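User: Structure please.
Assistant: Input sequence and predicted structure:
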Amino acid sequence: MISILVMDIDRSRGINMKVAIIAITRNGIKVANKIQAGIGGDVYIPQRFYKRGKFGPENANSQRDQENANQQQGLNAYTGKVYTIKAPFIEFVHRIFPKYNALIFVTATGIAVRSIAGVVWDKRSDPAVVVVDEQARYAISLLSGHLGGANELASEVAKILDCMPIITTASDAQGFEGIDVLAKKLGLYIDNFIDLKRVSACLVNGEKVAISMGMDFPREKLAHLPGITEVVSNVIPEDAKGCVFVTDEKVSPPPVPYVILRPQNTVLGIGARKGASYDELLALVNRSFVDLNLSEKSVSCISSIDIKKDEECIYRLAQYLNVPIKLYTKEQLSKFEHRFPISPFVKKTVGVGSVAKPSACIASCDGNELGYYTAKGITLAVFKRRTS
């Protein structure tokens, strides 16, 4: 699904983790309640505990009845929703597994392992899984510790419960953040993901890893990685066992395992006549990538004017690149149009003299213009977001 956003340029957005907390014993439910009070989320409990006088707000005679019942059971009022586990347990877990960003089991570790065994697929898409024992002594990061955020979640749950976080990923055990964690924190897309495990193993084993960074990338962000040797002009030392590139440009594969961390800093501003050809737009974009030596994986978003929210060629391009579309009103674009050439025809048609460049300028936080292209009824402005 493509996100289409009509932008308020003065408003920032945040993303919250959708969490399911699963408990199957009375004491486990008390622990789940504490976790929910601290981080929110949906709690799932067995049907037998969800009845009048216990944990079932929809079955209680009133909210006060429910609050009194909770107090009698040693519980605080729930801060989120409570659901019952109606299907067989493993079937239930399989059903909710893809619906949440994180699952917290207040159970034995073995129960959690057996219940997720059939649906674990890929570290890039699997939700974080954390296990807490029902005595609230440990919060264990079980699955998707880095990319899924289970390590951070386990640490947060441990703070709430005042217990010990258990994190076993090798880089964390050695006291440094792995490449995948850094990529997630810095908003970098991991290209050539297939080699990530091999390059990470080089770092964990203390082997030399060459790193090549774009001139505008803050080098101190990766300076703490062990065994790192910075190189110039992508010339890889003969004794390097792996390589990390941090660039939005295309890279020639080196003779060692490598990953490319792509800054999401390229914005494609698009103006298009009604019914413009998707094939022509895609050809124009591909031409710009070749001319500017850019990777399509560095594109962060597409921008345009709000009246183009249903333009098929723009929507299909966003779907192809898997990026959101940011749309601006003519009033927002008009504040920037004086900085760019104006088309009287466009002004008469949409109410503002230019679309591609002003929209890309706004979406890139007043970034640098890299190139401008035109085709039949299509304009394309390529901007690079400021990194400040």
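Residues 19-168 form a domain with the Rossmann fold fold (CATH 3.40.50.11220).
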